[in-house]
Structures are given as structure tokens and as C-alpha cells.
Recover the amino acids of this structure.
């Protein structure tokens, strides 16, 4: 009786943890299959239109949070992503989209975002939304952001997550890359992400 | 004002299992308390207060906006675990809640359930097992790679917090059991003292290590964004100190309670 009970308990807890599976491909970054929820959001696109995950159905997606006035991490990470994208074949690149989500909607208008992302690569889409939508999305991917006090010119820094989240073409979460992952390794991971059918 | 208060009390991520477990614990305690009171054996006022204070503290750090800061600041996370594993768990165990919870069943007896529970209790309440688990869980969840995963996965995060609370309550129940060890068959006071000493030094070492290690030991907070701007090194030093000093102080307070239990027991038997 006791043995059965403890066996059942063990099985239940294993089942509970079994959600943390892994992909068939291997990544240089961290495989987070099952660790986080699938891609879902409701944001504003470059024309001010509503954009959801449905637009990217069939494409692998890399999600990254930042803001255009960012002095350090955002431009370096986007540059690294653009360089990695250039290492892919045209065919691979067309199956991949980078979503740069601004957590500073106050300053980042859709036009400004579009101009900023175009500077890096045509495969980068700039999205933003109201605080409610941004809080919901950052919470979904275990990250947060906050604003520092503005200086006398009204400029302020934004604290935000530095990770890149990779989703396969079905919107399933797969990959977690740190901002300091070398370009070659990012390219390899992007290729692996696209290869998941 | 009211709006801010309700905002602060709203859980960052609503957890049905947390609400359920807290409700079950409080309801069972209240029912048991009333049954005992009906027979004139209600626990003393300070024990009742200790139980509810402990439960309230644990609920606050797990299921209000405090939890938001715990997820995105290392030192707040350490404060959260200090409450779950030490302060809150200590207060709950100090209330000696097991007789009250058992009284919840009233006259009914569940022999099969009791029989199933007995070996589990024998293992988990064993002084060696309880001490190893108490220290081991602190080290386990603070292993940087495991800590990283726990902060990314909602389920691992819940498992981490609940394992800390349950383990803390078990450890302090062994330490603070007010019954006479000769008659109840509980751990002797000298053994409890050794348990506390054995738990004290690894915690001091770990706390000191985190405090003095190079910044970036727990880089998940840098990668996932902090709740407010703080120098990462400061965050880690504060977290290290919280792991080190208040945790060690709780151990000393535990030793004082054991000493008092011993003196009371000794004077009873001597007199």
C-alpha cells in the first residue's frame, strides 16, 4: 500500500516535470522546449495596425525586448542578429523573422521603430503596444522592464531583459540565447530553429 | 490608497495550487482549534498567533506583488526564501500545529492513512535526513544552473518555493517539538542542538561565498531584467548577506528555544 502510494507520487511528480522536454535539434544556446509558453501576443505594427502571432504562422521567430534609445545592448544584439542572418542562405533567411518589441511605447512610435529596425535587416519587425500588452508579454516570457528617472533633457534609460527567445514555425518555444552569444553560434542556432518542421 | 493596497496584494502570477494549499491549511487549523476548544484544550493564544503570523508571512511573500520583486531581484528572492524556510516556517512550527491539525478529524480515525504516513514521517523527521534536506535544498536551488532554470520555468519556480516552505516546517517541527523526548520518542535535545550546529556552518559558508564571489554568479537577473535599477554587484552582496546573517540568527534563536525546552523538561524531571 505504502509502496504503491509512493510509486504513484513519484510517477505524478515525474509527469508534472515531464513538460520540460527538449528539441530534436541541438542548440549552442539553451533548449527551453516546454519551459515556457508558446508564442502569443497582441501588439501594434509599423502602420499602427494590430499584430498577433498569426501573422508569423509558418515562420520561425526570434523575440527580443528593447527600445530604440537604448545606448548599448539593443544595437549590439540587433547587429549580431543581422550578421547572423547574413550567414544564412536566402532560403533559410526567408523562413525566419526577428521581432524587436519596444518596451518604451512613449518614445517609440511605430514609424520610428520601423526606421530603426530597417537599419539592421529587412527581416526585423519592430512592434510595440500599450503597457498592459507589454506587461502581459514580458510576464509570459519571465522577463520584466522598468524606467529610470529622466535627466534634465527628459532622456531616460529603460532596464529590460537581454535574452533572445526562439520559436519554431509552429510558435513553440525552443531556444533561449544570451545577448553575448557569438555571431557564428547565433547563426548555427537560427539554422537549427528553421530546420524544425 | 485603497487602489494601491489592492494592487500590492494582487498576486503577480495567480497560482491556484498556492491558494488551495493555504486555504486547506487554515481551514484545517480552524476546525481543529474549535474541536480542541470544545474540550477545553485549545492551544494557547501565543501559539495560535504564531501559526497565523507564520502563514500570513509565507502567503505574503508567495502570492502578492512581493513575488514580482522576488522573481526579478536576487536579494528580494533571498528575503523570500528567508521567510519561507526560516522565519515563516519557524513560526508555524513554533505553534506546534500537528495536534491541532490532527484534531480536525475529530473522533474519526483513518488507520490506513496513518499507516501510510508513518514511514514517510519516520524518514523525513529523522534528525539526519531533516538536516541534510534543510541544508541540501538551500544549496540545490542556489546552484547557478538550477537557479537559472527555476527562474525561467513557472512550474520549477513553484516547486522551489513550496519545497522550501514544506522542508522548513519539517526541520523546525523536529527542532521545536515541545513534548518530552522520553515519552514521545522525539529527537533528544542534544541531537537537536547538533542539528542546528550542522545546519549553521554550511549556511554561513554559502552566504559568505555569494557575498564575496565575483558579481554575475546568478546572471539570470541580468538577462531577464531587474524590477528596478540596482548595481548587479550590490544585488548579489545583499542577497549573500541575507543568506548568511539572518539565517544564522534564526538558527541561534532555534538553539535558545531548544535550551528552554531542555531546562523546562529537566526541572520537571528533577523536581
Amino acid at each position: 500500500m505504502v509502496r504503491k502510494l509512493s510509486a504513484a507520487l513519484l510517477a505524478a511528480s515525474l509527469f508534472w516535470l515531464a513538460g520540460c522536454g527538449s528539441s530534436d535539434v541541438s542548440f549552442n544556446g539553451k533548449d527551453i522546449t516546454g519551459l515556457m509558453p508558446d508564442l502569443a501576443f497582441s501588439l501594434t505594427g509599423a502602420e499602427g495596425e494590430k499584430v498577433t502571432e498569426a501573422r508569423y504562422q509558418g515562420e520561425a521567430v526570434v523575440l527580443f525586448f528593447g527600445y530604440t534609445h537604448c545606448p548599448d545592448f539593443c544595437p549590439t544584439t540587433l547587429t549580431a542578429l543581422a550578421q547572423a542572418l547574413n550567414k544564412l542562405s536566402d532560403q533559410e533567411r526567408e523562413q525566419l523573422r526577428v521581432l524587436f518589441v519596444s518596451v518604451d511605447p512613449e518614445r517609440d512610435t511605430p514609424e520610428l521603430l520601423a526606421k530603426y529596425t530597417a537599419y539592421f535587416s529587412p527581416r526585423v519587425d519592430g512592434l510595440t503596444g500599450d503597457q498592459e500588452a507589454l506587461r502581459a508579454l514580458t510576464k509570459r516570457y519571465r522577463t520584466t522592464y522598468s524606467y529610470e528617472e529622466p535627466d534634465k533633457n527628459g532622456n531616460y534609460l529603460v532596464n529590460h531583459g537581454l535574452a533572445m527567445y526562439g520559436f519554431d514555425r509552429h510558435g513553440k518555444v525552443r531556444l533561449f540565447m544570451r545577448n553575448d552569444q557569438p555571431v557564428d553560434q547565433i547563426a548555427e542556432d537560427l539554422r537549427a530553429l528553421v530546420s524544425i518542421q | 490608497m485603497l487602489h494601491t493596497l489592492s494592487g500590492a496584494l494582487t498576486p503577480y502570477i495567480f497560482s491556484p495550487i498556492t491558494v488551495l494549499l493555504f486555504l486547506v491549511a487554515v481551514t484545517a487549523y480552524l476546525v481543529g482549534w474549535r474541536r480542541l476548544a470544545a474540550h477545553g484544550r485549545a492551544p494557547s493564544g501565543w501559539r495560535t498567533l504564531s501559526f497565523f503570523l507564520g502563514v500570513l508571512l509565507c502567503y505574503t511573500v508567495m502570492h502578492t506583488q512581493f513575488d514580482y520583486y522576488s522573481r526579478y531581484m536576487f536579494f528580494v528572492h533571498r528575503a523570500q526564501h528567508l521567510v519561507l524556510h526560516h522565519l515563516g516556517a519557524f513560526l508555524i512550527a513554533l505553534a506546534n500545529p500537528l495536534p491541532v491539525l490532527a484534531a480536525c478529524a475529530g473522533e474519526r480515525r483513518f488507520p490506513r492513512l496513518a499507516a501510510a504516513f508513518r514511514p514517510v514521517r519516520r524518514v523525513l523527521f529523522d534528525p539526519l535526513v531533516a538536516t541534510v534536506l534543510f541544508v541540501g535544498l538551500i544549496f540545490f536551488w542556489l546552484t547557478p544552473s538550477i537557479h537559472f532554470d527555476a527562474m525561467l520555468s513557472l512550474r520549477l519556480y513553484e516547486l522551489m518555493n513550496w519545497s522550501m516552505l514544506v522542508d522548513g516546517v519539517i526541520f523546525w517541527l523536529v527542532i521545536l517539538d515541545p513534548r518530552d523526548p522520553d515519552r514521545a520518542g522525539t529527537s533528544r535535545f542534544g541531537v537537536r542542538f547538533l542539528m542546528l550546529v550542522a545546519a549553521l556552518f554550511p549556511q554561513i559558508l554559502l552566504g559568505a561565498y555569494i557575498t564575496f564571489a565575483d558579481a554575475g554568479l546568478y546572471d539570470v537577473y541580468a538577462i531577464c531584467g531587474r524590477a528596478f535599477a540596482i548595481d548587479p554587484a550590490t544585488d548579489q552582496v545583499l542577497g549573500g548577506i541575507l543568506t548568511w546573517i539572518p539565517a544564522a540568527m534564526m538558527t541561534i534563536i532555534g538553539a535558545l528555544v531548544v535550551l528552554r525546552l531542555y531546562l523546562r523538561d529537566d526541572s520537571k524531571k528533577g523536581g
About this structure: Chain A touches chain B at residues 1-2, 5-6, 16-17, 19-20, 32, 35-36, 65, 138-139, 142-146, 148, 157, 159-163, 176, 178-179 (CB under 8 Å). Chain A has six helices and ten strands. The beta strands of chain A are 30-31, 42-44, 50-52, 60-66, 96-102, 124-127, 145-147, 158-160, 164-167, 173-177.
